[in-house]
Amino acid sequence: MIEAFEASNAVDYLVTHPKEAEKMNRNGQNVVQEKYNWRIEEQKLLAFYRGPIV
Fold this sequence. Notes:
With 54 residues, the chain is mostly helical. The protein starts with a helix and ends in a 5-residue tail after the last helix.
């Protein structure tokens, strides 16, 4: 669990390093779009449904 002091330091870092914050933002968005988008999840679900019936 993140302590309040650690969270405060993290926010302070992002405020004082806006270019790094923007880079982290873009990287996070890319991960979400690549890993958790409906097209990929749809394919996983269809593969699951088509799996062997036991």
